[in-house]
Specification:
The protein is of the alpha+beta class. Helices cover 34% and strands 22% of the residues. The strands form two sheets. The chain has a six-stranded antiparallel sheet, sandwiched between helices. A two-stranded antiparallel sheet has the order 3-4. The model is unreliable at 1-18 and 188-201 (pLDDT under 50).
C-alpha cells in the first residue's frame, strides 16, 4: 500500500499526463539515495519572506509554500535530507529527488518522473556534475555545469532545481538570530550617573 501511495504521490506531483514515465517512487528514490537509511517525512511552511530569501539565493522560481523534506538517519545519525522538486522542462513537468548532506552540499540527484520525451533526458555524466556541489556562482549552466546538446532545457531545469533545493535547505536550517544582551536588573545604567561616579573617584 505504501508503495502504491508513493507512486500516486510522485505521479500527481509531476503531471496528470498519460505520457509521464515514473522511474522511482518516493520510497525507491530515498532507498537509492541512502541505502539502509530510515526516512522521516517533515512538513515546513514558508512565509513570503522566507520564499523571497530562497528566490534571492537561488536566482530562480520560488518554492511552494508547503514543503516536505525527508530527513534520513542511519543508526540514529542524520546522513542527509531528500527533497522532491517539481518543475517544468519545456511544456511538461518532471519530478526530481535531490539529496543534501548534513553540511548543506548536494550529494546526488535523481529523475523520478518525466513527462517530456525521454530523448530530453541527459545521460548520467550530466547528473554526476552535481555531486558535492554548493550554492555558488559556479553552480550555473555553462559556468561550472556543462550542458548537453539536445537537452538544453532539461539541463537548465535541473540546475534551477538543484539551486532552489540548496537555497531551500539553507533557509529551513537557518539559525535564529542571537537574542540581544539583556540589560542589568533595574534597567539600563544612567550615563550621567556613571560619569559622575567616575569623576568623584
Amino acid at each position: 500500500m505504501r508503495a502504491l501511495l508513493a507512486i500516486c504521490a510522485v505521479a500527481s506531483l509531476a503531471t496528470g499526463s498519460s505520457a509521464q514515465v515514473v522511474f522511482f517512487t518516493v520510497d525507491e528514490a530515498i532507498a537509492e539515495l541512502f541505502p539502509e537509511g530510515e526516512a522521516t517525512r517533515l512538513t515546513a511552511v514558508l512565509d513570503e519572506e522566507a520564499r523571497e530569501r530562497v528566490v534571492e539565493a537561488a536566482g530562480g522560481d520560488a518554492p511552494t509554500s508547503i514543503v516536505h523534506p525527508y530527513v534520513v538517519r542511519r543508526d540514529g545519525e542524520i546522513v542527509g535530507t531528500v527533497y522532491f522538486d517539481v518543475h517544468r522542462v519545456r511544456t511538461r513537468r518532471e519530478t526530481m529527488a535531490v539529496a543534501v548532506g548534513p553540511d548543506g552540499r548536494a550529494l546526488r540527484v535523481l529523475v523520478c518522473a518525466f513527462a517530456e520525451p525521454q530523448d530530453y533526458i541527459p545521460r548520467q555524466p550530466f547528473y554526476d556534475q552535481f555531486t558535492d556541489r554548493v550554492l555558488d556562482d559556479r553552480l550555473r549552466l555553462r559556468r561550472g555545469v556543462d550542458a548537453v546538446t539536445g537537452a538544453t532545457l532539461t539541463c537548465k531545469a535541473t540546475v534551477g532545481c538543484v539551486r532552489r533545493v540548496l537555497a531551500l535547505h539553507a533557509e529551513l536550517n537557518r539559525k535564529p538570530a542571537p537574542a540581544p544582551d539583556e540589560p542589568p536588573p533595574g534597567g539600563e545604567p544612567d550615563g550621567k550617573a556613571v560619569a559622575e561616579a567616575r569623576r568623584r573617584r
